[in-house]
DNA sequence: GCGATGCTACGGCCGCGGCCGAAGCATTCC
DNA sequence: GGAATGCTTCGGCCGCGGCCGTAGCATCGC
């Protein structure tokens, strides 16, 4: 049963505010330096160093040295999925807390871009990602339920038509049977509704970057939809934005 | 973005050893009294009371009073899924820790039954559940990948033949398209391989109890496979145990 | 009514762990 | 070589939070 202590210890690692901020910042799948992570956590570099060492040793983070920099990233998709799960539950916690402490919820202009479109580990999130998922659900191209999800045959045809590589390295091939590719619902933080994650979400995201439909906004997880992207995605997913 | 503090706070709630033990004990989906939970956590009742109040207020637990007892259970499937995710990551943590501290991993006789068959929130787990999943995968009745899962049409036929109610209350109906019912892979603690969870897993588990194929072992999450169950399940899932 | 049981509320003790300053090692640039 | 940058290690401060003892409130049994 694997000592219950490892269970508590893992949760405890995420439970510290400073470490939680670092992990949240790494949720976009990129690798950041210790200094950058110290900054987002609002702590001194030497404190961050200790945290990062613990997270790495516990297997939550992976580190690779490059010159005099050390880049830290989430160790695996399993870690990202765990963090998603915690965030999902934490979002509902707001209900009870709202009465207690006035959650500022300062929705600054920067957050606007974040709410609209951002990366979530290896796939897209935000209003636009939810809208894309909605479009596909409406047309029966994908099934999304809290307990699982599946790309239908027509959905596979649709995505391939967009240039999405469903059989690429990122997409774990179906063990057998119809060449169905797996996707997973991921509860959107800001929208509180599911968008598409998993192999399908990753492949779709990759295509959006490769075709220049979206590009990263410097220094944040938010992404901008380019004019070309607005055209292509709007037409493909029936978006009226 | 919902204050990152709620995120850390949620993880922190799970991160305390006493609370973690309580939550782990509740992972079988049953409701336990405060005294029982205090016992599994190894703390005094008044300490447990405080923990339970916090967990309930945070929305991780739900409580219902019944006479002078108060039964606590996990508030939702989302919470159970979050805990699963943490356990999954915690299991891999063993690799790094094994060198540091000799994890006793006392595999007592009671654990044997636990490893063989137990409940995991609302579905079956353990060697037998993994074997059942393997059998279905081998015959193309279900797809299980780390990122998602789906019951195939032949799988639905197979389970209905066993008497599993796939369209019941537990199974969220497919939003549209072929009447596919959703299932989700759940990494087995002891086997480190996926078994079937989600609506399909819950329905299958329910059938196993209803038909008397398995029954709970008092005071533990382990379940025993009855002679009738050995016969029925062995035949249906090609088990040689 | 009285006592027993299950649970909760309050106070005080105490120890774990986060935090930073100072110092030390590695790498890069000039 | 010397200085600057990026990161880590060590030591000590300090505060948050878990723990239980005592006491108080509900429910059940007689």
Strand and helix map with partners:
2 copies of one chain form a homodimer.
Chain A (H helix, E strand, L loop, with lengths): L3 H12 L1 H9 L6 E2 H8 L3 H13 L3 E6 L2 E6 L2 H24 L8 H8 L1 E3 L2 E3 L1 H12 L3 E4 L2 E4 L1 H10 L21 E4 L6 E4 H13 L3 E3 L6 E3 L1 H11 L4
Helix pairs in contact in A: 2-3, 3-4
Chain A binds a DNA duplex (30 and 30 nucleotides) through helix 4.
Describe the overall structure.
2 copies of one chain form a homodimer. With 241 residues, chain A is an alpha+beta fold. The first copy, chain A, is built from 10 helices and 11 strands. Chain A has helices at 4-15, 17-25, 34-41, 45-57, 77-100, 109-116, 127-138, 153-162, 198-210, 227-237; strands at residues 32-33, 61-66, 69-74, 118-120, 123-125, 142-145, 148-151, 184-187, 194-197, 214-216, 223-225. In chain A, the strands form 5 sheets. Chain A has a 3-stranded antiparallel β-sheet with strand order 1-3-2. In chain A, helix 2 packs across helix 3 (34-41). The model of chain A is unreliable at 95-108 and 169-181 (pLDDT under 50). Chains A and B meet through helix 1, helix 2, helix 5, helix 6 and strand 6 of A and helix 1, helix 2, helix 5, helix 6 and strand 6 of B. The first copy, chain A, binds a DNA duplex (30 and 30 nucleotides) through residues 16, 18, 33-35, 43-53, 67-70.
């Amino acid at each position: 049963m694997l000592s219950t202590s490892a269970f508590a210890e893992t949760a405890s690692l995420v439970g510290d505010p400073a470490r939680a901020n670092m992990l949240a910042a790494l949720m976009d799948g990129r690798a950041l330096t210790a200094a950058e992570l110290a900054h987002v956590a609002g702590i001194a570099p030497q404190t961050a160093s200790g945290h990062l060492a613990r997270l790495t040793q516990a297997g939550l983070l992976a580190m690779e040295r490059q010159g005099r920099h050390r880049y830290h990233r989430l160790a695996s998709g399993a870690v990202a999925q765990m963090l998603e799960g915690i965030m999902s539950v934490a979002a509902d916690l707001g209900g009870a807390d709202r009465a207690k402490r006035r959650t500022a919820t300062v929705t600054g202009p920067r957050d606007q871009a974040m709410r609209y479109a951002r990366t979530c580990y290896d796939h897209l999130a935000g209003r636009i990602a939810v809208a894309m998922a909605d479009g596909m659900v409406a047309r029966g191209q994908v099934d999304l339920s809290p307990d699982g999800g599946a790309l239908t045959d027509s959905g596979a045809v649709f995505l391939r038509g967009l240039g999405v590589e469903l059989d690429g390295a990122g997409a774990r091939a179906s063990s057998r049977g119809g060449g169905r590719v797996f996707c997973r619902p991921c509860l959107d933080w800001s929208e509180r509704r599911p968008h598409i994650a998993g192999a399908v979400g990753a492949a779709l995201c990759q295509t959006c970057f490769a075709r220049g439909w979206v590009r990263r906004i410097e220094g944040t997880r938010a992404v901008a939809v380019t004019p070309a992207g607005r055209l292509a995605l709007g037409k493909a997913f029936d978006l009226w934005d």
